[in-house]
Amino acid sequence: MGRSSWVAVSVLATISILVTLTAQAYPPGVGILAKNRSCVSCHPNNGPWADEAHTIIDILDATTKQSLEGADGVFVIEVSRGQTRTVQTVIGRSREDTVKPPQRNAWLYIDTTQLATSSLSKFAPGWEVNLPMSCRVVGDEVSAFEGAHLTSLPMTILPTGAARDAELELQALLTAGESVKNKAAEGLISNYFVRKVRLKVIDP
Ligand code: HEC
Fold first, then answer.
1. Which numbered atom of ligand 1 lies nearest the CA of 36?
2. Which domain holds residue 160?
3. Can you give the pTM of this predicted structure?
4. What's the number of domains the chain is made of?
5. Residue 184 lies in a domain
6. pLDDT in tens for each of the 204 residues of the chain?
7. Nearest atom (ligand 1) to Cα of 104
8. Is there a domain that residue 17 lies in?
9. Is residue 26 part of a domain?
10. Ligand 1 test: best mutation among 105, 179, 191, most atoms within 8 Å of CB?
């Protein structure tokens, strides 16, 4: 092999190691629901954060920081075809909460019509997404929710030529404790929340 092919091989090897590490950094269940309908197929709803009153689940426009929640409680994300839009997922508990806050929150955006398909991506077909899931330690600051106990990350999406309007679920688990290998019902305590998200593609 010539020098340039060795460089190519080692670059490829580095990339695949990075991809593997990144994949392992996520809790295995978050991205891979397999044939399960949602997180509560495996995880119990047994934490102290079950009430909606102190729970914060929001999706903001990453630039304006405005909530994308409609009057009916459904989040609407409109994007021009071929363009990117970045939203910010915010998950946690309000400042006024009297119970000890969760330690780690995890969430997943999923088009449930894709669950039964063999498609690797369970996001809406035709839509590209950089980070449809995450698991994160509580402690992010979001100015709209000062003093709250939150996790927050941006997600960028792009409707390609094949994209249609679609409906997603934002499935979220507020958690604390240490999970036990292969035992979703031991160690970790969790509460499950779900929100509807409508994706709309705008054609010029
Ligand atoms: C098929 C069963 C299954 C489903 C569905 C599932 N999980 Fe899990 N999850 C597990 C198991 C088992 C563990 C324990 C850790 C392990 O086995 O590696 C776990 C662990 C976790 C942890 C703790 C990871 C850590 O580092 O301590 C989080 C957070 C989590 N899951 C979030 C989710 C979320 C959010 C969903 C839904 C979007 C979900 N899980 C769906 C089985 C599942």
1. 5
2. 32-202
3. 0.87
4. 1
5. yes
6. 455 554 444 444 444 433 333 333 344 455 567 778 899 999 999 999 999 999 999 999 999 999 999 999 999 999 999 999 999 999 999 999 999 999 999 999 999 999 888 888 899 999 999 999 999 999 999 999 999 999 999 999 999 999 999 999 999 999 999 988 888 889 999 999 999 999 999 998
7. 29
8. no
9. no
10. 179
Atom of ligand 1 at shortest range from CA of 28: 18
Question: Which residue from 35, 37, 42, 175 has its CB within 8 A of the most atoms of ligand 1, so it is best to mutate?
Answer: 42
Cβ < 6 Å from ligand 1: which residues?
27-30, 33-34, 36, 39, 41-43, 104, 106-108, 135, 171, 173, 175, 179, 181-184, 188
Is 140 within the bounds of a domain? yes
Give the 3-state DSSP-derived string for the chain, with helices as H, strands as E and coil as C: CCHHHHHHHHHHHHHHHHHHHHHHHCCHHHHCCCCCCCHHHCCCCCCCCCCCCCEEEEEEECCCCCECECCCCCEEEEEECCCCEEEEEEEEECCCCCCCCCCEEEEEEECHHHCCCCCCCCCCCCEEECCCEEEEECCECCHHHCCCEEEEEEEEEEECCCCCCEEEEEEEEEEECCCECCECCCCCEEEEEEEEEEEEEECC
